[in-house]
């Protein structure tokens, strides 16, 4: 039977803990991070076509490249190379994850394209290791495949699942303009070269946070959220301080810059509190868009057509 196309749904991520160690010889930093997949998704559809094309739809389609540099296109090319076939497919991305927002939107699309193309081409996943291809595509792509909650080491591509109980409720304050991840790491290196790094977690494992997540106790989790990249993101985008303050003033238990930013993520006591915080933040004008999302949720998965 010929398959007409395959669609994957892939979650965004936030980092509940992001510890940044020293710069490695390969230009990456050694990380110790606790990823959490959130219920905010992109859908990636792959169909047979005469040549490789990318079409982007959805509320966040702007600023997403529709040429071969799109991470979903690169993922399809990498899988096609690996199995020795041509990558002639049309890729459609329905984009809801903020772009350049520190929520791994590009990585999500790469992970979605990998599992959708693997399905379309009937790739035997016992023979072809998608996780290995994912790691070559980007540090966050393996986590987009696995989802849930996971400890990431190396540059984030080495994953260990983390026990978690229940759901945590978040409000996301999305900025109108993104921040470049390499720029934020460079700013961190500059700040570190200039002096004080006493607040850095580095590569220490976030044991206390892992215990708190396993217990499902949101009030134990809130004070342990940590991001070594936050000072760098705030240095490049000072207005984010106001956003973070507005979230806690609106009743969130804690707020943090998500990954390299500029999205700010606010942890709330429960689903109702998240709706209240989102309503108040929307009115405060500190963010272009305000969303609620809960997690951990599953990673990239195929959805029926
Ligand atoms: P991370 O959290 O993994 O550091 P991010 O969420 O900050 O990443 P992305 O949304 O992945 O950032 O986008 C980073 C850049 O990658 C964008 O500015 C865009 O030019 C490029 N890009 C390539 N492919 C995609 C894609 N499918 N979706 C979004 N951006 C893409």
From TrEMBL:
The active site is at residues 13, 140. It catalyses: 4-CDP-2-C-methyl-D-erythritol + ATP = 4-CDP-2-C-methyl-D-erythritol 2-phosphate + ADP + H(+). The keyword ATP-binding applies. The keyword Isomerase does not apply. One of its GO terms (molecular function) is 4-(cytidine 5'-diphospho)-2-C-methyl-D-erythritol kinase activity. SUPFAM superfamilies: GHMP Kinase, C-terminal domain, Ribosomal protein S5 domain 2-like. Residues 70-148 form the GHMP kinase N-terminal domain. It holds the Pfam family GHMP_kinases_N. ATP binds at residues 98-108. GO terms for biological process: isopentenyl diphosphate biosynthetic process, methylerythritol 4-phosphate pathway; terpenoid biosynthetic process. Its EC number is 2.7.1.148. Residues 210-282 form the GHMP kinase C-terminal domain. It comes from the Bacteria. Keywords: ATP-binding, Isoprene biosynthesis, Kinase, Nucleotide-binding, Transferase. Pathway: Isoprenoid biosynthesis; isopentenyl diphosphate biosynthesis via DXP pathway; isopentenyl diphosphate from 1-deoxy-D-xylulose 5-phosphate: step 3/6. It is an enzyme of class 2 (transferase). NCBIfam families: ispE, PRK03188.1. Belongs to the GHMP kinase family. IspE subfamily. Catalyzes the phosphorylation of the position 2 hydroxy group of 4-diphosphocytidyl-2C-methyl-D-erythritol. This is 4-diphosphocytidyl-2-C-methyl-D-erythritol kinase. It comes from Gordonia humi.
């Amino acid at each position: 039977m010929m398959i007409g196309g395959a669609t994957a749904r892939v979650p965004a991520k936030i980092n509940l803990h992001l510890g940044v160690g020293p710069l490695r010889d390969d230009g990456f930093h050694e990380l110790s991070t606790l990823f959490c997949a959130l219920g905010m998704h992109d859908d990636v559809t792959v169909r047979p076509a005469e040549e490789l094309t990318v079409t982007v739809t959805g509320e966040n389609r702007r600023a997403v490249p529709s040429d071969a540099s799109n991470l979903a296109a690169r993922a399809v090319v990498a899988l096609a190379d690996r199995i020795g076939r041509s990558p002639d497919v049309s890729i459609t991305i329905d984009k809801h994850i903020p772009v350049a927002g520190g929520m791994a939107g590009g990585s999500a699309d790469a992970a979605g394209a990998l599992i959708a193309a693997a399905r379309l081409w009937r790739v035997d996943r016992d023979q072809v290791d998608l996780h290995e291809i994912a790691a070559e595509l980007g540090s966050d792509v393996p986590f987009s495949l696995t989802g849930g909650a996971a400890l990431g080491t190396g540059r984030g591509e080495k994953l260990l699942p983390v026990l978690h109980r229940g759901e945590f409720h978040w409000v996301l304050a999305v900025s109108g303009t993104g921040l470049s991840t390499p720029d934020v790491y460079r700013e961190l290196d500059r700040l570190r070269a200039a002096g004080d790094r006493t607040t850095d977690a580095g590569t220490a494992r976030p044991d206390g946070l892992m215990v708190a997540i396993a217990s499902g106790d949101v009030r134990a989790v809130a004070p342990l959220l940590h991001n070594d990249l936050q000072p760098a993101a705030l240095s490049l985008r000072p207005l984010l301080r106001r956003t973070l303050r507005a979230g806690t003033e609106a009743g969130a238990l804690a707020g943090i810059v998500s990954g390299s930013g500029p999205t700010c993520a606010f942890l709330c006591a429960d689903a109702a509190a998240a709706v209240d915080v989102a309503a108040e933040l929307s009115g405060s004008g500190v963010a272009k868009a305000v969303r609620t999302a809960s997690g951990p949720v599953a990673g990239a998965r195929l959805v029926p057509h």
